[in-house]
Amino acid sequence: MPNPQNPDDPQAPPPSGGGIQLPLGDRKNITPINIEDEMRRSYLDYSMSVIIGRALPDVRDGLKPVHRRILFGMSEMGLTYNRPTKKCARIVGDVLGKFHPHGDTSVYDALVRMAQPFSMRYPLVDGQGNFGSVDADPPAAMRYTEARLSKIAAVILEDLDKETVDFRSNYDDTMQEPEVLPTRVPNLLLNGSEGIAVGMATRIPPHNLTEIVNATIELVQDPHTPLSRIMELVPGPDFPTGAILLGRQGILDYFTRGRGSLKIRAKVSMEKFGKDRDAIIITELPYQVNKAKLVEQIAQLVNEKRLEGISDVRDESDRDGMRVVIELKRNEQTDIVLNNLYKLTQMQVSFGVILLSIVNGQPRELGIIDCLKRFIDHRVEVVRRRTEFLLRKAREREHLLLGFQKALQNLDAVIETVRASRNPREAREALMGQMEFPENLRLQEVVAKWSPTITFNGEAISRFDFSEKQAQAIIELQLQRLTGMEQQKILDELAEIQRLISGYLEILGSDKVLRGVIIKELKEVQKDFGDARRTAIVEDEGEISLEDLIKPEDVVVTVTRGGYLKRTSLDTYRRQTRGGKGRIGMATRTEDVVEHLMVANTHSFLLIFTSMGRLYWLKVYNIPDAGAASKGKNINGLISLQEDETVRTFLAVKEFTPDRFVVMATKHGVIKKCELTVFDNPMARGIIAIGLKDEDELISARISTGKDLIFIATHEGMAIKFDENDVRAMGRPAAGVTSMRLDLGDYIIGMEVVTEESLMLSVSDLGFGKRTKISEYRLQGRAGRGVINMKLTNKTGRVLAVLEVKEDTDVILITRDGKILRTEAESIRKTGRSASGVKLVSMEATDAVAAACAVQEAEQVEGEDDADNGQGDLPLQ
Questions:
Q1: Judging by beta carbons within 10 Å of its beta carbon (0-12, 13-18, 19+), is residue 674 exposed, middle or buried?
Q2: Which of 91, 227, 302, 619 lies most in the core, judged by the most C-beta atoms within 10 Å?
Q3: Which alpha helices (H) appear in 451-603, and where do they start and end?
Q4: pLDDT score, position 873
Q5: CA distances, 106 to each of 51, 355, 560, 716 (Å)
C-alpha cells in the first residue's frame, strides 16, 4: 500500500509528530508567520477598535459612537423636541438595524442614561416613562418607555444637513452616518463621559454650561488666555446631583494635565428633633452615589456598632426632592457623628478624573484649555463649511433670480417665444439661444421680430442668452408670478440673496468675523440653556483624621504592670466617702497589677516615658476605649517597646509650646530638665529622653514653667524641695544631675512640680495617706538629703506615691486586686510632714495600693457629681 505522505517512496515510513499532513500542492499557498507577531498585531487591532469605535468619546462633540448614532437615528426619525414621543423599542430597533450592530441592551442602556437628569447635567433625550432613579432602580423595558430628542440635543445636531461634517458608510455600506456631530457647545465638558477601553479609561465630570460657554468665548477671542483666567470663569465641575466639592487642588490638576482627584461630600443640614435631640438631613448626594445603598450601609454600620450615636435612619425623599433623615441619640455631638459618616460611608467619595478623549483618531489626555481649543477648531471648521454650503445655495438661487429679472424686463418677448415653441425643449433651447431656426419658421419669425440682428443660415443665436437652469425655471414659472406684486417679490428676494452672499463672503474672508459668528451662537445657546451652578466648591479642611471622629472628653488612662493599656470615661468613676471599699475597676490576672493611672483629654498627646529613659508619642484616642472592668490592650500593640523596656510615666500634652519644660527624675536620684519642644516629633521606634547609668531607671516626668519648685519623695519617707532653676535645661541625650542624696536601700518613688500654695498628698502601699502644705518643707539646694515626709510603721507600710492636690481635687486609688476608690481630697485630714496619716481605703490583708492619681475639678465632666447621692456605689454603665 503506498504511503500517502510520501507517494514517491511507498516503503518510506510516515513522518513522526502526528497532525494533519497537507498535499504538496496545498502547501504552496501557506505563508509561515510568527505567532507572537500575529497575536500582537491582532490584539492591537482589536484594542484600537474598542478605543475608537466604542469606549472613548470624541473631543469635538463629546459623544461615543453609540450615543452619536442614537441621536442621529432619532433625528432621522423626526423625533425632535416639538414632536410626539415614540416607543424606545422602535428607536433601539432603528439604530440597531441601521448603525450600531452591537446588541439592543447596549443601545437602550445608552439611551436611558442620556434621559436621566441625575446622570446627565443636560439630558439629550426627553424620556417618558420609568427611566430609573437615583436609587439605582432599573428602567422599564423598552417596550413600555417612549422618548424623543431634548431641546438642547437640537443644538448638537444643528446644521447636520448643511455638509458641515463628513459622513461615512454604516456597517453594511447601505447608508451614511456622520463621523462627528456639528455641535454648537463643548458637550464633552458639559455632560462628561465615562468609559473603559483596552489599557485605558476615561472619566470626565460634567460642568456648568454658562461657565463653559464663558470660557469658550474667552478662548475664541484670545487663544492665549491663561489658565488662571479660565479658572475664574470655570471654578470646577458642576454635578447634576449638586453636593459639595472640597478643595481646588484636584481641579487644578485635571485642568492642567487631564488627571486629578476630586473629593465630593453630601450636602447636609441640621434640624432639632425633640427637646435635646438633633437630626442630620441629607439633601444632596455625591455624583453617582446610590441613595438606597447608602441608607442600607448606614443602618448596617449602626447595627455592627461601628457607627455610634445614631438612633434611626429613614428615607423621606419624594418627587419634590431628596431628604434622608439620620436621627441622633440624646446629647450626641453632631460634628462627631457627621465626620464618622463622611469617613465610613459614601457621603464622601473621591472622583478620579481622567480627561481622555479621541483627538484626530488617537486617544489623548488633555487639559481643559486644550479640550476647549479642540472644540473651537471643530466649530471653526463647521461654521466655514456651513457658510460655504449656504454661499453655494445662495449663488444658485441668485442665478435663477437674475434670470427671472431679465425675463421680466423682456416679458413680452419671452412669452411670445415660449408660445411660438412647439414643446418645452424647443422653448428652453430658444431662450438659451440653441435653436436652429430653419426647422421652425414660426419661431424664426418671432425671434426675428424681436431681434433684427438675427441671421437665417442655421446659426445658434438668441436675444436672451439664458442658462439652462434659468431657461428651465422661466418655462416652469407660474403665471401668478407675473403679477406686479409677485414681480416685486422676486426683485426683493434677489436683493436679500445678494445681501446674504455679501455676508457669507465676509465670513469666509475674515477669521475675526467667522469667530464673531461662533461667539454669537454660543451666547444664544447660553441664553436658552444657561442655568445656575448646583455643586458648591469649598476649601478642603484636610483629610478627615481619626481625631475628627473622636468626641473630646476627659478619660482615665490606666496601665498595668503587664503592660495593658486602656482609657475609660471619667464619669465611670463615682465619688465615694473616705474609707469606702471601692469597686471593681479592672479584671487583672493574679500576677498583674495596675501601676499607672492618669486623667487626659482624648485629643491630647501622650508622651510615654519608659524605664530605659526613652520617649514614645501617642494620641490618647488611639488608646482603646474599654469598660472599667475590662483589661484593655497590651501597650506593645500601640507602641514598639524595646526588649526589657516598661512604661514608667506618661504626660498628657495638648500643644508643644516653647515656654514649657519637661522635668524627669530617676530611681537613683538623678534629675534632668529639657524644653518641651524637643519632644514634638519622636520616631516610631522612640527617642532618647534621658541618658541613664547602669541599673538606674526613669521614675517620673512632669511639665513645668521654668519657675516652679521641685518636690521629690523617697520610698522610705524622705522628701526634698528645691528651686527648679537649680536644674539647667539640657539636650535629649544628657544624663542629668543629682537631685537628692539617698540612704542605703532607699530610692525615689515620685516627683512633683509644685508652687508654695500646693498641698502634697502622700499615699502608702497599705492604704494610708496624709495632706501636708508644701510650705512645711523647707527649701533646700539641689542634691541635699531632704527632710522627713511621712512617719512610717508596719501598719502604714512604705510610701507608694506623692501627689499635688487642692481642696477641690479628687483622688483615685487602684489596688493590686483591681479595686478602684474615688474620694475627695478635702476629706483627707491635713497633718504635719512627719505624721503617719489616715486610712484611705479598706483592703484585704493580701491586697495593697498599686497606683494613685489626682483629678482636678476642671477635668471633671459636667454632671458627674450627681452620682454622689449618699446611696453608695452605683453599677457600672
A1: buried
A2: 91
A3: 468-476, 484-509, 511-529
A4: 26
A5: 16, 23, 65, 87
Biggest CA–CA distance in the chain, Å, is 159
- The second-level CATH assignment, the architecture, of 386-520 is Orthogonal Bundle (1.10)
CATH code for residues 552-867: 2.120.10.90
Q: Let me know if 200 is exposed, middle or buried by CB neighbors in 10 A (0-12, 13-18, 19+).
A: middle
Q: Is the pLDDT of residue 806 over 90?
A: no
Helix axes 468-476, 424-432, angle to 10 degrees: 130
User: CA torsion, points 375, 376, 382, 388, in degrees to nearest 10?
Assistant: -170
> What is the grid cell recorded at 37?
507577531
Going 90 to 93 to 98 to 102, the CA torsion angle's sign is positive
Give the pLDDT confidence of 585-633 residue by residue, as tens digits.
544 443 455 556 777 788 788 788 888 888 888 878 777 776 666 667 7
CA–CA gap between residue 332 and residue 254 (Å, rounded): 40
Cα atoms in the Cβ-side hemisphere of radius 13 Å centred on 519 = 14
pLDDT tens-digit map of 70-113: 999 999 999 999 999 999 999 999 999 999 988 899 999 999 99
Please confirm, yes or no, whether 144 is among the known catalytic residues.
yes
| pTM score over 0.85 | no
- Point out the catalytic residue in the list 43, 46, 81, 144: 144
63-182 classified as CATH 3.90.199.10: yes
Q: What share of the chain is helix, strand, coil (3-state, %, to 5)?
A: 35, 25, 45
Is 76 in a helix, a strand, or coil?
Answer: helix
Q: What fold characterizes domain 267-346?
A: Gyrase A; domain 2 (3.30.1360)
| DSSP string for 572-624 | GS----TT---EE-----TT--EEEEEEEETTSEEEEEETTSEEEEEEGGGSP
C-alpha cell at 697: 531607671
C-alpha cell at position 514 = 467667522
Q: Which helix (H) or strand (E) holds 369?
A: helix 368-409
How far, in Å, CA of 87 to CA of 111, rounded? Answer: 12
Domain coordinates in residue numbering, the chain: 63-182, 267-346, 386-520, 552-867
